Amino acid sequence: MRFLVNGGRPLRGSVDISGSKNAALPILAATLLSKEESVLTNVPDIRDIHKMLEIMEHLGSQFSFENNTIRIQTESIKTTEIPLGLVKTMRASILLVGPMLIRTGHIRIGFPGGCVLGKRPIDTHLDAFRALGTDITEEEEYIDFKLQSPQAGKVVLKEISVTATENILMLAAGIPGDTEIRLAAQEPHVADLCEYLKSCGVELSGEGTHVVKVKGTPAIHGAEHRIIADYLEVGTFAIAAAATQGDVTLQGIRMHDLDALWQKLEEMGVILDFGQSSVRVRGVKQMAPIAKLDTGIFPKFPTDLQAPFVVLLTQAHGVSKVFETLFEGRLNYLFELEKMGARFEFLNPHQAIILGPSELKGAPIASCDIRAGAGMVVAALMAEGETEISSINYIDRGYERLDEKLRHLGANIVRMQSEQDIEAQQRSLASFAAKEKSGVSSEVNR
Ligand code: EPU
After folding, report:
1. Chain segment 296-344, per-residue pLDDT in tens
2. Is there a common fold for 2-18+229-441 and 21-226?
3. Fewer CB near the terminus (10 Å): N or C of the chain?
């Protein structure tokens, strides 16, 4: 599947923000901790959620998913083995290990895959599981976990890892006694998992900090929980609004999840007006460069917004420098951007210099991971002419109805299923462009 984008139109209007993928995935996994039903609302209807539900169905979960609400119950576990084929496209499947160990004491799972962002080991998860009494056998393509001698205690994570923190939180929640997780990740989605666990009867403190204390209990029950707004979607739309010199109001946001982004946007000259749970973003013609953009763990600038933001930096008047501190594969999209006319110097797999402003022109490009894909869409929206973005299955993993929401803001973006669709669409875009040039207005592709 592809997107065909005819760029150069400012985005205008208002958009509602969906629930967070990275909160919904661990919370879905955590529903396994209890036999009772949980009801999750504001769940984004995206590929990764469907994938997680598919794996959980394989384990024995029963669910319905309608209008962004999932009702899910896993009364009995059918199997403790998850085949490689089910997990190889989603790294977050590793999140099932903690809850499965609590429910059955055993899980054998294929090594989790996901977007290729460089080396993404799971040693932090493994060390933490061992610390709470898990025996682990690593095979070539599988890992076997057995909770031999569950013991609550102190766990100091090897890296401040988001999913390792979530996994160990879920394991600790079901092991009676006090567990202290140090060097815990404090991202808003980790805190949201803590909120869900608390609603399920787990005593917990320190959520949203680097030290989380959990009082484990065998009496975990089901709960109703609303998934927090996706701050990565907020950031993507804010950047797209600025990039197209648009005027967009984002509704349903949590302002402080994105302090680092707001700071950088204002430094560039973008105009921001905050409401109670909204922000109005107005782009400007003359944007200043950013001397130093370093990504980092929360609350620093999120690695997941680095690609869209760097696309914006291609329009700044001057030289910007980006340092992607987490993942060494996360600057590769620059070579796609180069096909559109972006100018940069690639210093090493973690650092690059962006030379702005550059005039982006439509070109065939590929989306190389979820967030780089969002960056490609931002580039296409501001480029002159037509851009065809392939491999949009990555984008669909993480963004709910991205094309539909953008069309609502006035973007000319369409989803192509087949080669014939693409040819037909290209003809229609050509006639649309001709009409626009001659002053005849049209609603095609709106
Ligand atoms: N790391 C290790 N060993 C581990 C785990 C991580 O060395 O066992 C390293 C990684 O290589 C990286 C750093 O620790 O340098 C942080 O990785 P982390 O484990 O925090 O990443 P993750 O938990 O696998 C989550 C998000 C990612 C997001 C990162 C960083 C979910 C499901 N995934 O991944 O989201 O990029 O945190 O914030 O929450 C995305 O949504 O597109 C995405 C990739």
Report:
1. 999 999 999 999 999 999 999 999 999 999 998 899 999 999 999 999 9
2. yes
3. C
**What is the residue type of 227?**
I
CA distance 98 to 107: 9
| Cα-to-centroid distance, 159 and ligand 1 (Å) | 10
Nearest to 278 by CA among 49, 12, 53, 17: 17
Q: How far apart are CA 247 and CA 251, in angstroms?
A: 13
Residue nearest to atom 2 of ligand 1 (CA): 121
Query: What residue spans define the domains of the chain?
Result: 2-18+229-441, 21-226
DSSP 181-229: EES----HHHHHHHHHHHHTT-EEE-TTSSEEEEEE-S-----EEEPPB
Return the residue whose CA atom lies nearest to atom 7 of ligand 1: 121
Task: Give me 273's structure tokens.
Answer: 């007006």
**Distance between CA atoms of 19 and 332, rounded to whole angstroms?**
28
Burial 247-274 (b: 16+ CB within 10 A, else e): bbbbebbebebbebbbebbeebebeeee
Q: What is the pLDDT of residues 376-411, one digit of tens each?
A: 999 999 999 999 999 999 999 999 999 999 999 999
Class of CATH domain 2-18+229-441 = alpha beta
- Ligand 1 is surrounded, with C-beta below 6 A, by 21-22, 25, 91-92, 115, 119-125, 159, 161-164, 185, 303-304, 326-327, 370-371, 398
- For domain 21-226, is the CATH number 3.65.10.10? yes
Q: Whose CA is nearest to atom 33 of ligand 1?
A: 22
List the beta bridge partners of residue 301.
295
